[in-house]
Amino acid sequence: MIIKAILLTKSDEKFAAQVRDLTDEELRANTPEADVTIAVDYSTVNYKDALALANKAPVVRKWPLVAGIDAAGSVLQSADPRFAPGDRVVLNGWGVGEQHWGGLAQRARFKGDWLVKLPDGLSTRQAMAIGTAGYTAMLCCLALREQGVEPSSGEILVTGASGGVGSIAVSILAGWGYRVVASTGKSAETPYLTALGASSVVDRAELSSPGKPLQKERWAGVVDAVGSHTLANACAQTRYGGTVTACGLAQGMDFPATVAPFILRGVRLIGIDSVMCPQPRRQQAWQRLASDLDRGKLDAATTVVGLAQAIELAPVLLAGKVRGRVVVDVSA
Predict the structure, then answer these.
(1) Does residue 322 register a pLDDT over 90?
(2) In angstroms, rounded to a whole number, what is the distance separating the alpha carbons of residues 306 and 181?
(3) How many CB atoms lie within 10 A of CB 74?
(4) In this structure, how many other beta carbons lie within 10 angstroms of the beta carbon of residue 331?
(5) In a domain, 147, yes or no
(6) Domain CATH number, residue 246
(7) Are residues 108 and 141 in the same domain?
(8) Three-state helix/strand/coil letters over 26-66
(9) CA-CA distances (angstroms) from residue 9 to 99, 157, 328, 329?
């Protein structure tokens, strides 16, 4: 059988990302650790995918590699007793699209340990409209609640709000009754963010430059997908006993801060990892996404493209010019 996939290759430092025809035999030969084969309906383009597709960071650790850290589809064959043909499943992370062949393909093979059965009520398209970005957003939002940050606690800051993580975090938190302040560098996206539920929008320039170690207290909680000075300023502005969740590095991997917010205001900084997150936590996040996320707002934050368009969109996404989520229809 011939399948289409985005194959990443590098030879003598010459990189290529191309839609290629692959045989089922090639797929099996390059996924020896896998025990479940799925027919992929949809994948997506996350920030990490864009880095890999544009060869802008050392994301890929195995060559050649089928790209895509996400996939959603139905089981075709399974040597894992937990999964049967016809089961609808979703895959996020676990090094897929980095060191294991990924989901930007019409067929994929994964370890059963990596898969989550798709909750009732979510389609495979909606699962990829959520994707790693939305699943990570839910992990951030759950962490805020578990640290005692309630809607009555005060305003919640979401940075990188027009991006994938930010858009869904705004929608989730607003749906839970929080007053959400969205930070973005795109003033034209204000109507979009307020439609998702943001109570107000601030210019990212207010947070992205070096600031004082301690600043005026404002935020009861923060969801940060940006890092660098933005994360440092968010911590410096967080109220006594507040919580900051950090899950991204769009501005940079550095953290130019001091210990002042943590030892003088009791601010908690919680790191959110979605790649190796244990299965019980993943399943909890996906169940909450299925029950709590407004599907209308999800649709409004989603663009659907084909495999070839996914490659073209990578540098655009890295430049911060893509709103919300990009779903990839692997049949297109």
Answers:
(1) no
(2) 33
(3) 15
(4) 11
(5) yes
(6) 3.40.50.720
(7) no
(8) HHHHCCCCCCEEEEEEEEECCHHHHHHHCCCCCCCCCCCEE
(9) 13, 40, 20, 22
Give Cα 74 to chain centroid, integer Å: 21
Q: Are residues 13 and 96 in contact, defined by beta-carbon separation less than 8 angstroms? A: no
Q: What is the mean pLDDT of the chain?
A: 95
Cα angle 180, 184, 171 (rounded to 5 degrees) comes to: 35
SS3 68: coil
Answer yes or no: do 97 and 198 share one domain: no
Instruction: Give, in order, the Cα–Cα distances in Å from 314 to each of 38, 73, 100, 216.
Output: 25, 23, 20, 37
Report strand pairing: 70-78 vs 88-92: antiparallel
Task: State the pLDDT confidence band at 328, using cuts at 50, 70 and 90.
Answer: very high
Backbone angles phi and psi of 211, in degrees to 5: -135, 180
| Domain residue limits at 56 | 2-118+301-329
Q: What is the 3-state secondary structure (H, E, C) of 188-218?
A: HHHHHHHHHCCCEEEEHHHCCCCCCCCCCCC
Question: Does residue 53 sit in the same domain as residue 104?
Answer: yes
Report, as an integer, the average pLDDT of 38-51.
95
DSSP-based three-state secondary structure for 280: helix
Structure tokens, 199: 């109570």
- How many domains are there within the chain? 2
pTM of the model: 0.93
With contact defined as beta carbons under 8 Å apart, do 243 and 267 qualify?
yes
In-domain check, residue 6? yes
